[in-house]
Amino acid sequence: MAGVGSKVSWIRHRDLHILTVGGYTYTSDQRFQASHSPPTDDWTLQIKWAQQRDAGVYECQVSTQPVRSFFVSLHVVAYGRVCSAVPSARILGGPDLHVDIGSTINLTCLIQFSPEPPAYIFWYHEDEVISYDSTRGGVSVVTEKGAATTSYLLVQDATPADSGRYSCAPSNAELASVRVHVLNEFSWNRFTFNHSLFCYTHYFIFALSKLIIIFFPFMVLLDRKKIIK
User: Fold this and answer.
1) Per residue, what are the HEC states of 148-169?
2) Domain named Ig-like: which ranges (predicted)?
3) Using CA atoms, how far apart are residues 148 and 142, in angstroms rounded to an integer?
């Protein structure tokens, strides 16, 4: 169809995310790109370094009157390798990590058994790619490449909003995830202190009452002896 370039959109049905509109990409995942092959009216969605999680239904939508849609089902096949080990990623310390409010979230992603370092490593918070230039600030990533590649995600001054699932997604391996829980240490310690203080006070009063009950008859007896004398 001629003259529909700016009206062609690619949509991922797994999360109904608009990936591209015309030649513009509307996702922070840089693996996705729409390409046009003039003089034809063919628009192709390219996915670099496809992974198992990319499988699913994609919709090519043309914003004409009426709207036209074409659906493509993508299957990602992992071919067998000669070697027994395949590239894998894991985040150390998982599956659950607990950090105190105001401290630094320090996540370490280890990529092993890869013939070469991954072309890229994306970090996700829930389903959103983490932006290191966001207004939040205090977010950084350090990557060390070698026989094994290690990527460190640092999130300073943690708040409850930073809780949730974090994922490390290298280009050549399935993503790895952990769940981070940001604890309000001050409130918890204050509750623990008050609870302990209440328990100790209650125990002290109980013990004191027992002593009074035990020794009161002897005190009365001594007073009577003094009176008799």
Assistant:
1) CEEEEEEECCCCHHHCEEEEEE
2) 87-179
3) 14
Top-level CATH class of 91-183?
mainly beta
Cβ atoms of 54 and 29 closer than 8 Å: no
pLDDT digits (tens, 9 = 90+) for 154-172: 999 999 999 999 999 998 8
What is the domain partition of the chain in residue ranges?
5-74, 91-183
With H, G, I as helix, E, B as strand and everything else as coil, classify residue 44: strand
Same fold, 5-74 and 91-183: yes
Question: What Cα–Cα distance (Å) separates residue 228 from each residue in 25, 216, 220, 221, 224?
Answer: 104, 19, 13, 11, 6
- The residues with which 24 forms a beta bridge, in sequence order, are 21
Model pTM score: 0.50
Show the low-confidence residues of the chain (pLDDT under 50): 1-2, 81-84, 187-195, 197-198, 200, 220
